[in-house]
């Protein structure tokens, strides 16, 4: 089994991306940060590598998708409460993000999301496990 997870995302401006995600409360591992990339810590062993587009391209032979015009992935983060969902999305919008979709409240699951400065989609959700129906 894997012990760590690294999601790699291309960004146009590394400094602006670091500033944006810092405003959302994320921290960065300076050991994996230089002028081409940074390692954003999501949780204990979950990381997002933000790579300048030109550097990102050195790892692939295909064209980089323009996340402002197409979607390849939605990164979903779970948080401890509905209030935390709203807080994170609000902070993202204040930092320059947009919200392409409305909030969704299914009772047992509550979520909202944002599109970051480079167009990557982030969903933030809270699941109330005590409200889930148990099936056998």
TrEMBL record:
Transmembrane segments: none annotated. Signal peptide: none annotated. SUPFAM superfamilies: Glyoxalase/Bleomycin resistance protein/Dihydroxybiphenyl dioxygenase (SSF54593). It comes from the Bacteria. Residues 2-127 form the VOC domain. PANTHER family: BLR2408 PROTEIN, BLR2520 PROTEIN. This is VOC domain-containing protein. It comes from Pedobacter caeni. The lineage of its organism: Bacteria, Pseudomonadati, Bacteroidota, Sphingobacteriia, Sphingobacteriales.
